[in-house]
Amino acid sequence: MIAVHLESKRVEVRKARRPQRPEGFAVIRLLRGGICNTDLELQRGYYGFSGTPGHEFIGEVVESDNADLLARRVVGEINLACRKCDWCRKGLGRHCPKRSVLGIVRHPGAFREFLTLPEANLHVVPNSISDEAAVFVEPLAAACEILDQANIRRGSEVAVLGDGKLGLLIAQVLRAQEMEVHLYGRHRQKMRIAERAGVETILAGKKTPSSAYDWVIEATGSSEGLGEAIRMARPRGTVFMKSTVHRPVAIDAAPVIVNEITLVGSRCGRFEPALNLLQFRRVNVTDIISETLPLSQARRAFALAAKRGVLKVLLAGES
Amino acid sequence: MIAVHLESKRVEVRKARRPQRPEGFAVIRLLRGGICNTDLELQRGYYGFSGTPGHEFIGEVVESDNADLLARRVVGEINLACRKCDWCRKGLGRHCPKRSVLGIVRHPGAFREFLTLPEANLHVVPNSISDEAAVFVEPLAAACEILDQANIRRGSEVAVLGDGKLGLLIAQVLRAQEMEVHLYGRHRQKMRIAERAGVETILAGKKTPSSAYDWVIEATGSSEGLGEAIRMARPRGTVFMKSTVHRPVAIDAAPVIVNEITLVGSRCGRFEPALNLLQFRRVNVTDIISETLPLSQARRAFALAAKRGVLKVLLAGES
Predict the structure, then answer these.
(1) Which residues of A touch B261 (CB under 8 A)?
(2) Which of B278, B292, B33 is nearest to B143 (CA)?
(3) Beta A213-218 vs B56-63: how paired, if at all?
């Protein structure tokens, strides 16, 4: 089979052995993979990563002890937890200190013809969800995580900063919960995707309002975003931090303290609400796809995904 | 009368007019004032402040329309709110956007023989609380604010970073709520004060534990404290930000996001719980006093308060 390999900032497509299946694991044939900003950061060498990246995928189960999974289309939670520690017992395996993470930490990723994951990580994808939509379940779950972390009431005004892939998903997820979502971005074209979901968009460059929102979601992917988000939050407001920036972020602590603002780090989420949103077509994810390329052209796909203005680039499994 | 005056980083004691009493205000004769780190920052010129500082005080009401206040010993909430806006209606006048702040923003401070505050800001001090203890009500209320912002269960392990004045108060307040408090500091002498209240103390220099606490209070007053606090918090843990540092603070956003840590800015608090703690002798504040000097020696007092190792320096009103 072929597999994408990252090393020394290079993306290669190599021949590799089809993976063995440890007990409790399934072997999955890749249908679609999605290139995420984290993959681009792995490529840039920020985490000393080498190996096969990829954690957004939909695939078909080709080997499993579980008959309910065999030959089914699945998506998979990316954290491989120990299933024994306190975190795992609380159902929070995604914070298990012993976890490995698909395509990020000590478990080869999804950008290969066949991948493995524990059967317990897999969710069968309803037939009504296309491959192209299902590949968004993982980032959509990350967007939904905000709803698990805070009780934001219907009708609340929420500012989302950043019109990248994650910002567009978050804006739509919050809009689907009937919040008044204001998306601040820089790309008219990208923001149209959110507008079609009923999100109000504001082109950056205009002065952003100060102390204007009880809820601000920072998803700019830049190190300046957090300071801006803090400035836009009202006293006692909450800022969700969604941009993993690899450089240290300088913030002015004084307004956080004086205005008693809460900053909430927010990462992966449960897959169920994301699958629900897709099944009932409450969000439009396929408009976020800029291009789909075969797995064998991963190098080109990574280069494309890194370009300004490009949204989601998919890799298609070998058919 | 005499009044302390800050200007161009200089502390002077000047003759000044006894203040007029606007409607709804009381005139208060200063008994004791406490020099806070914020006062030292005002002196250093960080906020372009000039005028009379001082927001920690106890005084005696000498003029008021309210007979219940006349001749009584009082402490006063420092935020002078508009009493009309949404914040004020919610009882959160300390976030009123139109507020002035005693000795900090557009209202002359307490370090003068006679000061003014709205009668609504005043709390009568029970006879059982000495002047020396009552002057701590304001910083003690700031320490208590943590209890209003989060529901930390009895018996929870809480780390407090910093053995300065505020750190010692916070450690004692949390201990009085029967939490297991671990105070991390640099001064054996200062930490003894918290030890006597049943706080476990850990001298810094030893490696601090990583991912060890659900609750961490950052009160170091330094720009490095926040990163350390984040490192010590467990996944899904909460860090309270209590250090107003005037320089930008550089943090690594990645662990905040990956571990879904919540950072809570925390400032002033309600006076009632602080008065309660003092009345029932649940905290020991007078050990935190390093020295008391007369108002006329404010310059010396400010210089002393800025010295390493010195805790609270009080100013005594003219008798």
Answers:
(1) 265
(2) B278
(3) unpaired
The verdict on residue B251 lying in a domain is yes
Claim to verify: residue B258 and residue B309 sit in the same structural domain: no
The reply to whether B278 falls in a domain is: no
B95/A226 CB distance under 8 A: no
H helices of A135-187, where?
Answer: 137-149, 165-176
Nearest chain A Cα distance for residue B289, angstroms: 25
Host domain of residue B204: 142-265
pLDDT at B113: 98
Task: Provide the ipTM.
Answer: 0.92
CB B213 within 8 A of CB B237: yes
CATH number at residue B204: 3.40.50.720
Which of B260, B266, B270 is the best residue to mutate to test the A interface, defined by the most A CB atoms within 10 Å of its own CB?
B260
| Pairing verdict, β B114-118 and B122-124 | unpaired
Q: Is the pLDDT of residue A319 over 80?
A: no
Q: How confident is the model at residue B319 (pLDDT cuts 50, 70, 90)?
A: confident
CB-facing half-sphere around the CA of A183: CA atoms within 13 A? 32
Number of domains chain A contains: 2
Whether residue B253 and residue A249 make contact (CB cut-off 8 A), yes or no, is yes
Q: What is the mean pLDDT of residues B222-231?
A: 93
**Do residue A129 and residue A149 come from a single domain?**
no
Q: Select from A235, A246, A256 the Cβ nearest to the Cβ of B241.
A: A256
Contact A258 B265 (CB under 8 A): yes
Among chain B residues, the shortest Cα distance to A225 is held by B253
Asked if the Cβ–Cβ distance from A253 to B249 is below 8 Å, we say yes
The predicted-structure confidence for A127-141, as pLDDT tens digits, reads as follows: 999 999 999 999 999
